[in-house]
Amino acid sequence: MKEELTHQESLDLITEMIKQAKRNVAKGGSKQILLWGWTIALANFGHYFLAMAGIPSPYIIWLITIPAAVTSAVIGTKMRQRGATGHIDSVYAKVWIAAGVSIVICLSMMHKINFNHNAVILLIAGMGMFITGSLLRFTPILLGSFVLWLAALISFNLPEIQQYIVAGSAIILGYLIPGYLLKRAERG
Amino acid sequence: MDNFEPLDPLLHSQLRLAVMSLLISLEDAEFTFIKEKTQATAGNLSVQLDKLDQAGYISISKSFKGKRPLTTCKITTTGIKAFEAYVLALKKYLP
């Protein structure tokens, strides 16, 4: 690399390096969204159908979140191994860690909130999607948050078992579809 | 009329400016990442990183990734201010 730079070369270099940094770190978020989208959608529908089939302890289906959490941690580690962390990556991860903690607290207290935990989880997920969409400046993710909030509103007015169907559908429409659109945008 | 401020000589060098421009956009970056993006040689990059570190523009931390040594760089508040001042001064030189 040469030492002396013209002023225009300096500006071009700054622009190119900032672009390089952005290109490298702002990718890969869709993997986590798709992993959790499929896991939660399957668990919701699974819970509903197991309960409808009269199978005892239908909530056993939620154990699929354990391998999902392990896979999520592996994806997170691999993303870190790209050699750099972007400002957005860092905030993005913290938002979903905060959402995860809130969801666990909500689930542990579901009896205190009259088993409206699905509605509360949809509220938390909607907030996570709204912040993620704003950080990534990606409209489908932002719109997804409104789908999740609408589903939360509906869920608050339904019996617990029907909330699983609403939550599963909302995750497909407001979480998985924006996730696939993000994956396509990342490739482009 | 705008005064033409002298450009910070520490930043007005291709490799050091490239490193600072990368780091301003990131939380932190590993040595290998910076080397790949700047296409510099390891030796030259080490020397320039040391200069930026000594000026307090970046902080360098050394750790291990498995058994391999890992060097991670992060821009400091002083570095951010110097970079912003450099860009402001640069703007005055451009038409």
From TrEMBL, chain A:
It comes from the Bacteria. This is Transmembrane protein. Keywords: Membrane, Transmembrane, Transmembrane helix. The chain crosses the membrane at residues 33-53, 59-79, 117-136, 164-182.
From TrEMBL, chain B:
SUPFAM superfamilies: Winged helix' DNA-binding domain (SSF46785). It holds the Pfam family HTH_34. This is Transcriptional regulator. The lineage of its organism: Bacteria, Pseudomonadati, Bacteroidota, Cytophagia, Cytophagales. It comes from Imperialibacter roseus. Residues 15-94 form the Winged helix DNA-binding domain. Coiled coil: none annotated. It comes from the Bacteria.
